[in-house]
Amino acid sequence: MDLIYIDPPFNSNRNYEVFWGETKEKRSFEDRHESTQAYIEFMRPRCVELARVLKKTGSFYYHCDWHASHYVKVMLDQIIGENQFQNEIIWKRTSARSDSNRYNTIHDTIFFYTKSERYTWNKQYEPYDPHYIEEFYTHVDPDGRRWKRGDLTSPNPRPNMMYEFKGYPSPSKGWRFTRERLEQLDREGKIHYPKDPNGVPRLKSYLDEMPGVPLQTVWTDIRPLHNLAAERLGYPTQKPLPLLERIIKSSSNENDIVLDAFCGCGTALVAAQGLGRQWIGIDISPTACRVMAKRLRDVCRLPEDEKLWRVGRGFVVRDLPWSEKQLRVIPPFEFENWAVIALGGIPNKAQVGDMGIDGRIYPVSSMPTTSGKSAGELDFMDAWYPVQVKQKDKAGRPDIDMFEAAMLREKRTKGFFVSFEFSSDALREIDAFFRREHRTIIPLTVRQILDENIAMKLA
User: DSSP letter at 209?
Assistant: First the structure.
């Protein structure tokens, strides 16, 4: 990826159930983490993977607020590198409020990191403040162009730049420019000559030729979305389009690839599409994906079509939830991947020789220890749970026996087994295994996963 921007849940104890109508998706928008530590541990493995896919010349933006920003900064320093931190951006996201017992909190924080010292950077500008214009651009030509006076003299002694120009003697330290450059400025009408022959000509800097003020780290010029904004979709944490356009313009070029891994209603995707970038969006909610698809069709006039996507003129939506009927007939390895990913785990890359384990679930307390090819893409401390998946109407006692052997071999105290149903013999063996070895196997049916009724069992 050339540019990654994420706007994940903020750990702000806010509940966003009001937007989505589908009851089973409410948990996706409950921004309620048990603690700041739980939030950081939730985000850490995701940020590890995002950093992994970022190009050496790429940039990473993390949008958060005051609830956990200080801890997010420490986490990103560990993952990306504290020397790769570039800026902490403050965005004024709301107008003044009336908190009675403390200072009003009206801003979000955006952390800007790069993968290396060589990264894409396109300087952005904002308009001059009207008061600044009135104070400094005090001169107006007959054609209405405003300008201010600038210095044509050298700030340091330059003996080789001491010469007479248009009857004006050289300044004591010499001219700032060569004679050829001064003659060019004269032809362009950009030199102001004083009436006093002993005075010094001045450079005319025209307001309409100035790019503006280089963008600083405090952004107050992009207003948040109000209730009547045309682009507003009703999504509770929707960000204004100009905010994403500014980030994308600053840290990517046309045809670069932009990734938003918590893309919500797709503002980053719409901005990237409008600016001629390629893009990838990820979200946990099927409803959010449908909202994004509709927005891309309606706003960007982009067709949702596989063939057009392959030639760069459309988009596709992938990996929406399967039905139980579909899951019964898909290829076994694809079914295994679906089940492991649905549990929040990492599936095996090999289709054979998995030794009775189809994937691993890493608890949020796992920490990356080493990196490099020998360590694999993910290398955590030795804290993980095995997952076994069987695409069967009913997993039986022999299936459980094989998984028990794998757990004993890997010295795991807890594991997860997924199937469409379990025989009574299989369930009795799971109970006996716990009493005999004090090791836990959690049986999960496909229906339980589809209904998202597994939170307590994954705890």
Answer: G
CATH architecture under which domain 3-124+214-310 falls: 3-Layer(aba) Sandwich (3.40)
**What six digits make up the tokens of 87?**
């800026």
Tokens for 438, please give them. 């004090």
What tokens does 260 get?
């938003």
The pLDDT, as a whole number, for residue 19 is 36
Q: Nearest 5°: phi and psi at 411?
A: 55, 50
Nearest residue to 247 (alpha-carbon basis) of 411, 60, 429: 60
User: Domain ranges in the chain?
Assistant: 3-124+214-310, 128-209, 324-458
Contact (CB, 8 A) for 255 and 276: yes
Q: Which CATH class is domain 324-458?
A: alpha beta
Residues 6+ apart with CB under 8 A from 267: 238, 239, 240, 241, 243, 244
Mean pLDDT for the chain overall: 85
pLDDT per position as a tens digit, 80-109: 999 999 999 999 988 766 666 888 888 999
CA distances from 209 to 187, 205, 334, 429, 449 (A): 16, 8, 59, 80, 61
| 139-143, 277-281, 317-321, 345-349: the lowest-pLDDT one | 345-349
Query: Beta strand 59-64 with 3-6: parallel, antiparallel or unpaired?
Result: parallel
Backbone angles phi, psi at 416, to 5 degrees: -125, 135
Inter-residue contact 137 to 146 (CB < 8 Å): yes
CA distance 91 to 103: 16
Tens-digit pLDDT profile for residues 373-392: 444 444 445 678 999 999 99
CA distance linking residue 10 with residue 317, whole number of Å: 26
Between CA 149 and CA 139 the distance in angstroms is: 8
